[in-house]
Amino acid sequence: MVHAYRLLGKNIAIDVNGGAVHALDDVAYDVLRAVIDAREGRPDGAGGEVGLPEGPVAEALSAKHGKACVAEALEEIRGLTADGDLFTEGTFWGGAPGAGVGSSLKALCLNVSHDCDLRCGYCFASAGRFGGGRARMAPKVAMDAVGFLIRKSGGRRSLEVDFFGGEPTLAFDAVKAAVAHGEAEAGKAGKEIRFTITTNAVGLDDGMMGFINGHMDNVVLSLDGRKEVHDACRVMADGSGSYDAAVRGAKAMVGMRGGKGYYVRGTYTNRNLDFAADVAHLADLGFERVSVEPVASSWDGGLELGEAHLPAVLLEYERLALAVWERRRRGERLEFFHFEVDLEGGPCAAKRMAGCGAGYEYMAVTPDGGLYPCHQFVGMEGYRIGGIYGEQDAGLMDAFKSTNLSTKADCAGCWARFHCGGGCASSSLRYGGGIGGTYALGCEMERKRVECAVWLKVMESGGEG
Amino acid sequence: MRHIRTVARSTYGKGLESKGCGECRSSCQSACKTSCTVGNQRCEGAGAPEAEAAERAAAGRA
User: Fold this and answer.
1) Is B9 contained in some domain?
2) Whole-model pTM?
3) d(CA B16, CA A67)
4) A346, A418 contact by CB (below 8 A)
5) Of the candidates B9, B31, B36, which has its C-beta nearest A20's C-beta?
6) Count of domains forming chain A
């Protein structure tokens, strides 16, 4: 399968099963489109001759571009196909994702605080409570969770722990205890744990920031963008906006990081479909690593994204790609998370098939030590895997492990499947009828983000064509 | 080539035989927590595709 598209003045082809990317002139683009049309109806990945059908299609192409140019372009397409960079056969399509080392536990999201100092209008966690009461993880539970991760990680060397919530700085004693325990124990087991934290930045003090900077591989700071956008949703318990405190905290934290990892991460809703302006605002504040995400859900209603918003959202991603490119051309550094596709150093086929690994290699831990497939499933009836202290539901874990790209019917015909990995299990459950379904709206957005990301790579690779 | 410029060559085949080494990051642990994306994770295994690409470049194929 080949995805050929025009975006922002460029003709681009993505070889779906191999990952190759090509920039084409107008002749090659038209010829490739005709070749793709001629192959329509073949099973995905089928080999066979690359050619143009005799008759009106070939004649029209020759009339438009000249017979010699069409023949040249066709030969180039044939050459790339022979080299394995176009129409690659789907040799691994249908294969099971990682076995052995790849199926053991790798990462935990520690919900150290089911409590938050903000009352964000779009919070999928219901102001940190995840549908339950307010709770904070005891330091011992946090330490035991890290021990559980090490024990269950099999042959993996690189492990991950993200401190999440709610707001994790409200349970910073648990954060510090988990880090100290992990740093002491991982080495003994021949492993390394990368710690990350996701915080609203409102309550960060010097002590917390020093600790985070010293021990965390990545820190995710929640800021939605423009003050009026941020304050419309991200409010304190008394209803006042949190923008000023969050910007102050985020700037101080990022100022400490030097070359260490961070992301400033925002959420957009149907109230700021012009979210490229929010990315621009965050960049203007001096943040170089930014992500904005579509709202996951809306517990008070009215903020969610729907079909009616899709055209504006897709157009906005194009505007954002152009804006990122223009800033980079001016010499500014700006990374937008979803546009940072690594075309040659990206994940292997097995990872692309397995996706996020929720439910078996990635799980969330609640303050009482309960285990869920991921942070989005916390508190959801029927999705508690068990606990770090007791048994785990092997059947439920297997259900997640056996649900992957190759089992999702909707993914079979999607050109972006190996960039997305099958999508979010929680969104699939909520909107697609089960974890084996898909979230159609999210798929549309993901495809546009990939198109934009690849467009940026084409622009950065220089040259014409 | 006159009409097509290759920006990146195929890399996906690498790693399939080994079923993945399991060393790369979990996609939802990075920045998003809402939008699953694997394409922007980096391979961190010993046989990383980037190493493969480097080998090809050295061999004059890239």
Assistant:
1) no
2) 0.93
3) 41
4) no
5) B9
6) 1
- Mean pLDDT (whole number) for B42-62: 51
Q: With beta carbons less than 8 A apart as the criterion, state whether A236 and A117 touch.
A: yes
In this prediction, residue A463 has a pLDDT band, given cuts at 50, 70 and 90, of: low
Cβ contacts of A431 within 8 Å, gap of 6 or more: A437, A439, A440, A441, A442
Asked if residue A249 belongs to a domain, the reply is: no
Q: How far apart are the CA of B38 and the nearest CA of chain A, in angstroms?
A: 5
Residues in chain B closer than 8 A to A196 (CB atoms): 29-30
Tokens for A230?
């941020």
DSSP letter string, A20-86? -EEEE-HHHHHHHHHHHHHHTTSPTT--------TTHHHHHHHHHH-HHHHHHHHHHHHHHHHTTSS
A221 inside 8 A of chain B by CB: no
Q: Report chain A residues whose CB lies below 8 A from the CB of B26.
A: 106-107, 160, 356-357, 361-362
Token readout for A130 is 């995840």
Contact A385, A393 (CB under 8 A): yes
Note whether residue A74 is domain-resident: yes
Contact check, Cβ <8 Å, A80/B4? yes
Q: Is A134 a residue whose pLDDT tops 60?
A: yes
What's residue A189's pLDDT? 96
Closest CA to A211 of A264, A163, A266: A163
Whether A11 is covered by a domain: the verdict is yes
Chain B residues with CB-CB distance to A361 below 8 A: 22, 26
Range of the structural domain that residue A74 is part of: 2-91
Interface of A with B in 297-326 (CB under 8 A): none
Q: Give contacts of B4 with chain A, Cβ < 8 Å.
A: 13, 22-25, 28, 73, 76-77, 80, 465
Tally of domains in chain B: 1
- Region of A134 (left: φ > 0; alpha: ψ -120 to 50; beta: rest) is beta
**Separation in Å, CA of A158 to nearest CA in chain B:** 6
Q: Confidence band (pLDDT; 50, 70, 90) for A124?
A: confident
Per-residue pLDDT for B31 more than 90?
no
- A 10 A CB-CB count for A122 gives 20
Contact A426, A377 (CB under 8 A): yes
pLDDT score recorded for residue A200 = 97
Determine, yes or no, domain membership for A216.
no
- Could you tell me if the ipTM is greater than 0.85? yes
Q: Which of A13, A418, A442 is closest, CB to CB, to B12? A: A418
Q: A22 at the B interface (CB within 8 A)?
A: yes
Judge: A344–B8 Cβ closer than 8 Å, yes or no.
yes
Q: How far apart are CA A277 and CA A78, in angstroms?
A: 43
* Per-residue confidence band for B62, with pLDDT thresholds at 50, 70 and 90: very low
Indicate yes or no: CB of B39 within 8 angstroms of CB of A346: yes
Contact A344 B20 (CB under 8 A): no
Contact status of A88 with chain B (Cβ, < 8 Å): yes
